[in-house]
Amino acid sequence: MTQSETKVATTPRALDGIRVLDFTWVRAGPWCNRWLGSLGAQILKVEWPENPDILRGNIGTTPPDVENSLNTSGQFNDTNANKLSISLNTRTPRGMELIKRLISISDVVIENFSSRVMESWGLGYEELRKIRPDIIYVSMAGFGHTGRHHYHTTFGSSAQALSGQTFLSGLPAEVPAGWGWSYLDDTGGMYGAMSVLTALHHRNATGEGQYVDLAQMITGITLTGSALLDTTINNRSSRREGYPPGNRAHWPNTPLVNNYRGPTVAPHNAYRTNPADYNDWCVIICHSDEEWWNLVKVMGSPEWAASPKFATMVSRLEHQEELDQEIESWTIALNKYEIMELCQAAGVRSMPVQSSEDRLENDPQLRHREMYLEMEHPVLGVRKLQNAPFKMSETPAFNSSPGPLIGQHNREVFEGILGLSHAELVAGYEDGTFWPSSIALDLYPYVTEIMRDALSKNNETHLLSPNGSPKQESVTERNANSRGPLSGLLVLELADKKGQWCGKLMADLGAEVIKIEPPGGEAARTAGPFYEDIPNRERSLSFWHYNTSKRGITLSLETEDGRRLFRRLASTADIILETFVAGYLPSLGLGYEDLKEDNPRLIMCSLTDFGQTGPWRNYATSDLTHLAAGGQMAMCGYLDEQLAAAPPIAPGGGQAWHMGSHYSYMAIMAALCYRDVTGRGQYIDTSVHDACALTTEGHVNNYIYAGRVMTRGRPQLICNDGRWVNATIGVRLTPKNLGVLAEWMDGHGLAGDLLEEKYGDPDVVKENTAHILEVLSNFAANVTSAELYLESQDRKFSWGAIRAPDELLDDGHLQDRGFWVEVEHPELGRSFKYPGPAAIWNGSPWKISRRAPLIGEHNEEIFCGALGLSRADLSVLTEGGVV
Question: pTM above 0.85?
Answer without folding.
Answer: yes
